[in-house]
Amino acid sequence: MGLDVGSVNVKLSLVDERQQVILRDAERIISTTGAAVDSLLARLDRRFTLEEVGNAGVTGGGRAAVSSSRGWPEFSGSLATAAGLLHDHPDARTIVQIGGQTSTVMSLADGLKKPWKMVSNPLCAAGTGRFLEQQAYRLDISLEDFANLALECQESPPG
Which end of the chain is more exposed for a tag (fewer CB within 10 A), N or C? Predict the structure, then answer.
């Protein structure tokens, strides 16, 4: 099981011994990170016990609080993202990751075999998921419709 503890959401992914995803879930952080993790684990417990899950690891900006309270190891979020994406899309060359407070672009060369270039924006909401959510709200459209409009764009993005 992997937990990614972001600034807005905690995400959970559970894979089986064949490395097939069998469960994905997310919980928005409303009060505390711990409360969001507890809520996710309560939903997980309806299907699997933590003993059945076996191993767990934590990534993300808030990982230290979760890993220290649960004793789970911490992992690099960028490495976890690249490894997970390359599992399903081995020919991927660029990963754009947009979170609640940061965005990152990873340029890959030969999967995980060679070092890759990584560029992140400074900690602020501009150009990130939270900023995009705010703009969709201001336009009074759903985030899904907002994303579909972006996909329809044929012009070069602003520089």
Answer: C
